[in-house]
Design brief:
single chain, 203 residues, alpha+beta, 4-stranded antiparallel beta sheet, 6 helices, 59% helix
Amino acid sequence: MTELQDDEGGDARDETRWIVLVVRLPAQPSRHRVAVWRELRKIGALSLGQGVWAVPDVPVFTDGVGRALELTERAGGEAVSLAATGRGAQDGRRLRAMFTAARSADWTEFLADCGKFETELAKEVRIAKFTLAELEEEEQSLERLRRWHRDLTARDVFGAPEARPAGERLKACVTACEDYAERVFAALHQVPEPRASEEGTGR
């Protein structure tokens, strides 16, 4: 997380610098506008209006901003990149609040997917579906959650309140997946009991 306090311990976040992008693209074909929109949404850029986006001026956003500018240029569009701060303390606080609200929405979506993952694991345990194929699928889902958590953490510059419970929820998902893996291996290594007909014949 970016250090946003001054040397005396006071709140210096009102001086946060922002990169503001003003993007203009041809109306057609629409795929170019969609590609730029997706790239900016992917890095967590804040939409300030049609074709106007902002991100805190920190290194984690550099590559994504560069890709959006490249996509714009390739599509024959125009883009202006500006370094900015809020004109006043209130403007800076408002930008931070808007950006953090967007991150809160991201974390809420992440928490919902963690819930779906836990529900899916609980269902497989309930129906005793203990197979390697299912375990591999669940581990891939867990890895996706881990990557998502890393990405969200990197761009949550100001620390949304949902970040801490999201981290705890991910740990719970890891524990649940480890428990499921143990059940799968126990089932695979279980020696089947002989059938009654085989017991009677001594086989």
